[in-house]
Amino acid sequence: MSTVIPGKTTTVTHNLGSIDVIVALYNVATCNELNAGVTILDENSLMITTASGTPEQIRVVIMAL
C-alpha cells in the first residue's frame, strides 16, 4: 500500500517483478474507489496521476498476476 498526493503524479515502487498488475485506489475516509491515471514504468514500479480535488488520503492496492 502507498499514499498518493492528490492532484500530483507519484511514482510507486512495488517490487512485484511483473508488468501485469492490477491497481486500485481508495479514499481512506469513505473507502470509495477512485479513478486515476496509471502508467506502468517497469516490472517493479508504476506512476499514478490523480486529479485535483482528490481526497487528502488515498490507499493504493497493487496486485500482480
What can you see in these coordinates?
This protein has 65 residues and is mostly beta strands. The protein has one domain. It is 0% helix and 52% strand. The chain contains no helices and seven strands. A four-stranded antiparallel beta sheet has the order 1-7-3-4, with no helix packed on it. The model has no long low-confidence stretch (mean pLDDT 87).
Compose a concise summary of this entry.
The protein is mostly beta strands. Helices cover 0% and strands 52% of the residues.
* Approximate shape: globular
Rg measurement, Å: 11 Å
Helix content: under 10%
Total DSSP helices? 0
Q: Round the mean pLDDT to the nearest integer and report it.
A: 87
Order of helices and strands: EEEEEEE
Helix/strand-derived class? mainly beta
The number of distinct β-strands equals 7
Share of residues in strands: over 45%
Number of individual domains:
1
**Gap between N and C termini, in Å?**
17 Å
Sheet with most strands: strand arrangement:
1-7-3-4
Biggest sheet statistics: 4 strands, antiparallel
Which stretches of 5+ consecutive residues score pLDDT under 50? Answer: none
Key descriptive features of the protein:
single chain, 65 residues, mainly beta, 4-stranded antiparallel sheet, 3-stranded antiparallel sheet, globular
Layout: helices, strands, pairs:
Elements: E1 2-3, E2 9-13, E3 21-27, E4 33-34, E5 37-42, E6 45-49, E7 58-64
Antiparallel strand pairs: 1-7, 2-6, 3-4, 3-7, 5-6
